[in-house]
Amino acid sequence: MKINMLVIVAFSFLIAARSLPVKQTLNYESIFNFGDSLSDTGNFLISSDVSSPSIGRPPYGQTFFNRSTGRCSDGPEANGLPYVIPYLQSVRTNFSVDFNKGANFAVAGATANDFNFLKERGLSVTLLTNKTLDVQLDWFKKLKPSLCKTKPDCDQYFKKSLFFVGEIGGNDYNYPLLAFRSYKHAIDLVPSVINKIINVTSALIEEGAVTLVVPGNLPIGCSAVLLERFSDDNRWLYDTRNHCLKPLNNIAKLHNTKLQEGLVTLRQKYTHAKIIYADYYGSAMQFFNSPSKYGFTGSVLKACCGGEDGRYNAKPNVRCGGKGSTTCENPSTYANWDGIHLTEAAYRHIATGLISGRFTKPSLSNSSSFSKF
């Protein structure tokens, strides 16, 4: 089975890929995804202790299905992509689940750092889930024997598999920031977050992964809920071009710089592997800097879905889908969906930038990067 590369990258955002212009075909037969709410397709809903999480209710999923699907946006899974089953589906069902085409281990709210690490720093009470990146790696290791039996079999199988390691780490910063901790508290977590991502990426390569996409962090200084939380009259804190908060975006920039440095080390160690950095930050900043050029006539900084009071429609006490929340008439004209996540339209533009090769290292559009496929 050949999977359209356009659809593969779009998968990580769970968007409708049919509108993306660039098409490349590679012989990947399975996809394994690790991460958080940017790519969760149902694991949080299955594992949550909350009887009715907001992402399990409208208006989530309204743009395409007119119903919620467990995805943290208004859009669906990528159109045309074979359904990548959430790993915990195997726990919920009494029937056997076929993971030969891949599995999604991502869980909304997941962190890169482990639970005890965050607990020691007084953040455990704010966590939505304890299904951290290490837990997701353990799930993969448990699943692996059902996918291949011998090393030659596994080598052959994983040579035709694509791995997404993230986006992950954003919640490690969101939790302290939303808990009224300082910028410094969040930025001090960068080394541990990067170390965890690099270690898990290395572990996956040791397990047989050959081609891995490792995304960086999004521009969190443009996140409506954090803009609301850190709203300040000091104009020097804001970028004059896009009105995002510079100190918050500096956290994301540091994260991305250190992540790329770590990936360079991995490429030197695993010369046979294809490790691709996906610059979510750079691709997203295109529409934050020039919103009208990308069709965002409503707002790029104000949430489409949330409480109407406040500068950014993102008061933490009124969640999208909850009591008192409202939804904008046309989400495609907004970039921010619920204050934390972006709209399907925004994710589509980010994916377009990635597919073009401008925001991936090495470029996804460079066929020589995939000469063995």
Automatic annotation (TrEMBL):
Keywords, alphabetical: Glycoprotein, Hydrolase, Signal
Keyword Transmembrane in annotation: no
Keyword hit for Hydrolase: yes
Signal peptide positions on this chain: 1-19
UniProt cross-references to PANTHER family, sorted A to Z: GDSL LIPASE_ACYLHYDROLASE, PUTATIVE (AFU_ORTHOLOGUE AFUA_2G00510)-RELATED, ZINC FINGER FYVE DOMAIN CONTAINING PROTEIN
Family per similarity comment: Belongs to the 'GDSL' lipolytic enzyme family.
Protein name: Uncharacterized protein
